[in-house]
Write a structure and sequence with these properties.
five-stranded antiparallel sheet; globular; alpha+beta
């Protein structure tokens, strides 16, 4: 039985570079990892922030995921829960 690589099917949040003024790393993308293209490159699908519809496909290296400290989730619900209850709440407090 062929087991898919561990990241395939995972949902994620990616982050931008550190923002000195806001003292945080802003969320950049949300999406899911579709497939492993090469040993180090993954095809990911990102979703629109407002309506959550599929938006774009991107090729991303594992090094970029690590460098920007992506967060991974088992389900879309986990991903949305983090955004709704943790990230958005923190952003509201800092506004």
């Amino acid at each position: 039985m062929n087991t898919p690589p561990p990241l395939i099917g995972m949902f994620f949040h990616s982050y931008s570079e550190w923002n000195e003024e806001r003292q945080e790393r802003p969320l950049d993308w949300q999406g899911t990892i579709l497939e492993k293209v090469t040993e180090d490159v993954y095809l990911v699908e990102t979703y629109d922030w407002v309506i959550g519809m599929n938006r774009r496909l991107h090729l991303v290296t594992l090094q970029e995921m690590v460098r920007l400290r992506w967060s991974f989730y088992e389900t879309r619900e986990e991903m949305m829960d983090y955004f709704d209850h943790h990230y958005a709440a923190r952003a509201d407090r800092n506004a």
